[in-house]
Specification:
The complex is a heterodimer of chains A (120) and B (88). Chain A has 120 residues and is mainly α. Chain A has one domain. With 88 residues, chain B is mainly α. Chain B has one domain. At the A-B interface, helix 1, helix 2 and helix 3 of A face helix 1, helix 2 and helix 3 of B.
Chain lengths: 120, 88
C-alpha cells in the first residue's frame, strides 16, 4: 500500500458517494408524485452530491504536488461547492414559493386539497 | 484513475439523459424548469471530470464556475417570472 494508492481510494470513495446522492436525487425527481416532493428530492441530494464530488476532485488536484497553481485550482473547486451549497437551497426555496403563490396544489391521496385555497 | 473518471462521467451523462424526461414531458412548467436545473448540476461535475481527462483543470474549473452561477441565476429569474405572471 503506497501513499498514492491510499489517497486515490479516498478520492474514489468521495466521488462515488457523491454520485450515489446525485443518482438518488434523480430517481426521486422521476418517481415522486407532485412538484413539491420532486423539489424535496433534488434540492437535498444535489447539494450533498455536489459537495462530496467537488471535495474528491479538489483532493485529486492536490495530488500532483503542492504548488501555488494547484492550491488555487482546488480552492476554486471548493468555492464552487460552497457556492452551490448556499445557492441551491436558495433557488429551490424561491422556485417553491413562487409555485405555491401561483396556485399549484400539493398532492394528496384522494385528490382533495387539505389547505384553504387561495392561502391568506 | 482516468478509467474511473470516464466511468463516472458516463454514469452522470446517463442520469442527465433520464432527467430530460421531466424536462420534456413534465406536467407543469415548474417541473420543466427544475428538470433543466438538475441537468445543469450534473453538467457541473461532468465539466470538472473532463478537465482531468484533458489535463487542463485550470481552464475547465472556470467554465464550471460560470455554469454554476448561470444555473443559479436562471432558476431565480424563472421564480420571479412565475410570481408575477402565474404558471402558464
Amino acid at each position: 500500500m503506497s501513499l498514492e494508492m491510499i489517497s486515490n481510494s479516498i478520492v474514489m470513495v468521495f466521488i462515488s458517494v457523491g454520485v450515489f446522492f446525485l443518482a438518488a436525487g434523480t430517481i426521486g425527481f422521476l418517481r415522486f408524485p407532485d412538484f413539491y416532493t420532486r423539489m424535496h428530492a433534488t434540492g437535498k441530494c444535489d447539494t450533498l452530491g455536489i459537495f462530496l464530488s467537488c471535495t474528491g476532485i479538489a483532493l485529486y488536484t492536490l495530488q500532483d504536488g503542492l504548488s501555488l497553481a494547484n492550491i488555487l485550482v482546488s480552492l476554486k473547486i471548493m468555492f464552487i461547492a460552497v457556492f452551490w451549497s448556499l445557492g441551491g437551497p436558495t433557488a429551490t426555496h424561491a422556485l417553491l414559493k413562487s409555485a405555491f403563490k401561483a396556485g399549484i396544489l400539493p398532492w394528496t391521496k384522494d385528490g382533495k386539497a387539505v389547505i384553504e385555497w387561495p392561502p391568506k | 484513475m482516468d478509467k474511473f473518471f470516464l466511468t463516472i462521467s458516463l454514469i452522470l451523462s446517463f442520469l442527465a439523459l433520464i432527467s430530460l424526461y421531466r424536462a420534456i414531458f413534465g406536467p407543469t412548467v415548474v417541473d420543466r424548469v427544475i428538470g433543466v436545473g438538475v441537468v445543469g448540476t450534473k453538467t457541473l461535475i461532468i465539466l470538472l471530470l473532463i478537465g482531468f481527462l484533458y489535463k487542463r483543470m485550470d481552464m475547465f474549473v472556470d467554465i464550471s464556475l460560470v455554469y454554476a452561477i448561470l444555473n443559479f441565476i436562471a432558476v431565480l429569474i424563472f421564480a420571479k417570472y412565475f410570481v408575477r405572471k402565474g404558471v402558464l
